[in-house]
Write a structure and sequence with these properties.
Blueprint lengths: L2 H13 L2 E6 L1 H5 L8 H8 L1 H6 L3 H4 L4 H4 L1 H17 L4 H11 L5 E5 L5 H5 L6 E3 L2 E8 L8 E2 L8 E2 L4 E2 L13 E5 L10 H15 L6 E6 L7 H13 L2 E5 L12 E3 L3 H9 L3
Parallel strand pairs: 1-2, 1-9, 2-3, 9-10, 10-11
Antiparallel strand pairs: 4-5, 4-8, 6-7
Helix pairs in contact: 8-12
This protein binds zinc ion.
The site of zinc ion has 8 residues, from loops.
């Protein structure tokens, strides 16, 4: 990486009057969360699924909640427990300080479902979670119960040998049917999108109200497999952005003009960029 690029990124950070943070899987990996890319990464995190030969795309399919609720909740419950006990890395805190102490308006657009921006202290109304959140549940029978946030004392017991969750499994407070995470899964036609839709409206309003503020878009660890975060960041940059920094250890290249590519991890990039001279 050229020193010139790094310097330009630091300048962009200092000069920004508003910041859109686009966050993908790489942001969570830096907190120590597993990387699901490829079977080896996924199966390393879930040995019982390796034994069964079940890949990420297969287990992240809502039909398991009907076919084998204990296994579906074994997988999501394990992730839930992991997200809850993992501390977001210091890059999250640096972003929050920029927002709260330096009073730089900030919006988070993330594909991560771990709730780690909220955990850091960001407000609900400045976050859009495009794939939903594992910290929120919905009723599998779609009985009319709105999406609900998970209480602080939920802890799911998972048998680590076979990845089966123990009873009682989470249930709908209204009708008592099985609950499922409010995450957009693969082949998921029953995902309740109302919460994410409301977030999208707040996101659009935030963009509309920028009024010629110098907007920095900083994209952190967003992959090309499901490119929602990348595309959103590029779109905003093209319509209202002033500067664009793409941070990714492997795929930092950007075809758009006058963009900055930092081939490094999210946490390190935030630390370096935010360092005072
Ligand atoms: Zn229900």
């Amino acid at each position: 990486m050229k020193q010139k690029t790094l310097l330009a990124a630091k300048n962009a950070w200092q000069e920004a009057e508003a910041i859109l943070v686009g966050s993908g899987a790489g942001m969570g990996v830096d907190s120590g969360l597993p990387d699901f890319r490829g079977d080896s990464g996924f199966w390393k995190a879930y040995p019982p699924l390796k034994k069964l030969g079940v890949q990420f795309e297969e287990i992240a399919d809502p039909h398991w909640f009907k076919k084998n609720p204990a296994l579906a909740w074994g997988f999501y419950g394990h992730r839930f427990n992991l997200y809850r006990k993992t501390k977001p890395h210091e890059g999250f805190k640096i972003l929050l300080e920029k927002n709260c102490e330096e009073k730089i308006p900030m919006f988070i657009f993330t594909s991560n479902v771990d709730g780690h921006f909220q955990k850091t202290g960001f407000q609900e109304n400045q976050i859009m979670e495009c794939h939903g959140s594992l910290m929120h549940f919905q009723c599998i029978e779609e009985c009319g119960q709105p999406i609900w946030p998970i209480g602080p004392d939920l802890h799911l017991q998972i048998n680590t040998d076979n990845l089966l969750a123990k009873e009682p499994l989470p249930s709908c407070p209204q009708c008592g049917s099985l609950a499922r995470p409010n995450i957009l899964m693969f082949s998921d036609f029953a995902w309740n999108s109302t919460r994410t839709y409301a977030q999208r409206q707040r996101f659009e309003k935030w963009i509309d109200k920028l009024n010629n503020k110098k907007l920095l878009i900083i994209e952190l660890g967003a992959g090309t497999n499901i490119p929602t975060v990348r595309l959103t960041c590029e779109e905003v940059y093209q319509s209202t952005g002033n500067q664009f920094i793409r941070v990714n250890p492997r795929e930092s290249k950007c075809e758009l003009q006058n963009t900055l590519s930092l081939p490094m991890g999210a946490k390190d990039a935030i630390k370096v960029i935010s360092q005072k001279y």
